[in-house]
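Researcher: We plan to redesign the surface later, but first we want a full-length starting point. Tokens attached.
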């Protein structure tokens, strides 16, 4: 393999330097990525987009998501493709002494070590938090688990379990129907975001102290944080939230309402927006009705108001109302498919799709969600094949000098 062109992307590498990218706010940061499935890989992909050099380490069987299909593209799971761009990959069997030595060599050069092994699973390899802190005191070590390292250490870390155990499913679905899961592994994604935030914070602190630290994240804690007003209401007031279908517990009208042909989403967040809505519906009288003048009143009388709104909305199609309401600044939208959502974003000039790699290996992907004015995110490498960068990584480890970092003094706890 040509080290200057890993994965067939044509991306150039630098000689003797661990940081191949020359752009992005994290250029120069090296991340040893020992994660798999979704939360960890999503985190490391975001960091890679920001310019970090991410080395994805997989066991001999590879990341589980390589086999999670359908759907797939050219025989490769799109689940895997969606969270593994901008990385270089190597297979290491940590039970093999030579591969374990390679893993140690990678951590010698890494700024960040991210893993989602079961609690205690890395101890026999000398990669547990205490051993990492002793041997590599500069490293920011992030551990992602399902339910923590205490009494939840034996629970498998699946997003659906977190959705069930956090209470999220109890508030999702129709009032008279069964609990429902989210249409995406939402708490894996939120945990990945939290992990990225934590890594960035710890790197910033290391700039001052010269000392790394251990970060612990788990799906359930991220789920409880991500449920925001629902968990907030439960702990602050004893409120027991329940399934309300597509209705909002605190806002009305806020959800889907049937127009002449199909549903239209309305998001009315204040009294001014409500007055504007009913004006365009030809029902300005509703804004004068004392039952509906305040959000509190609209919540208390939502079923009476719902009938009035549905009658007025039946006069036009969802697209006709969307055009009129959008011009008037009334928050609303049709309900689109995922593909239509991508097309809509493109129509807004958000350029949601990027292309990774070159030629027949090009893979379309969703753009990094943050736009930087000076150090833009980069979209350079297609998701790697299993062990696809072994030669490049081993050559880099042989050539690169381990970075010289300050050794923390006792005054830096």
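Model: Full-length starting sequence:
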């Amino acid at each position: 393999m040509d080290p200057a062109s890993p994965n067939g992307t044509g991306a150039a590498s630098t000689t003797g330097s661990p940081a191949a990218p020359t752009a992005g706010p994290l250029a120069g940061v090296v991340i040893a990525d020992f994660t798999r499935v979704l939360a960890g890989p999503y985190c490391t992909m975001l960091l890679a987009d920001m310019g970090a050099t991410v080395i994805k380490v997989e066991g001999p069987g590879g990341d589980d998501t390589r086999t999670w299909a359908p759907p797939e593209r050219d025989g490769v799971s799109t689940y895997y493709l969606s969270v593994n761009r901008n990385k270089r990959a190597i297979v290491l069997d940590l039970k093999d002494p030579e591969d374990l030595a390679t893993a140690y060599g990678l951590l010698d050069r890494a700024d960040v070590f991210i893993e989602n092994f079961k609690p205690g699973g890395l101890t026999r390899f000398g990669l547990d938090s205490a051993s990492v802190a002793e041997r590599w005191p500069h490293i920011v070590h992030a551990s992602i688990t399902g339910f923590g390292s205490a009494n939840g250490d034996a629970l498998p870390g699946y997003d659906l379990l977190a959705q069930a155990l956090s209470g999220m499913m109890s508030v999702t679905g129709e009032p008279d129907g069964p609990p429902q899961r989210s249409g995406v592994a939402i708490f894996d994604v939120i945990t990945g975001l939290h992990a990225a935030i934590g890594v960035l914070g710890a790197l910033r602190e290391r700039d001052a102290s010269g000392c790394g630290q251990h970060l612990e994240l788990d799906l359930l804690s991220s789920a409880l944080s991500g449920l925001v007003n629902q968990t907030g209401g439960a702990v602050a007031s004893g409120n027991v939230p329940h399934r309300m279908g597509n209705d909002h517990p605190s806002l009305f009208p806020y959800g889907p309402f049937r127009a002449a042909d199909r549903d239209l989403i309305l998001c009315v967040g204040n009294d001014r927006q409500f007055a504007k809505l009913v004006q365009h519906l030809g029902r300005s009288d509703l804004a004068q009705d004392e039952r509906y003048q305040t959000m509190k009143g609209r919540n208390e009388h939502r079923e009476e108001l719902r009938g009035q709104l549905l009658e007025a909305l039946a006069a036009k199609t969802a697209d006709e109302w969307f055009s009129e309401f959008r011009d008037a600044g009334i928050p609303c939208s049709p309900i689109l498919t995922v593909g239509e959502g991508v097309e809509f974003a493109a129509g807004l000039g958000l350029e949601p799709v990027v292309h990774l790699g070159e030629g027949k290996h090009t893979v379309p992907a969703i753009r990094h969600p943050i736009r930087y004015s000076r150090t833009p995110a980069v979209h350079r490498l297609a998701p790697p094949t299993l062990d696809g960068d072994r030669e490049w990584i081993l050559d880099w480890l042989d050539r690169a000098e381990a970075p010289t970092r300050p050794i923390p003094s006792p005054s830096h706890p």
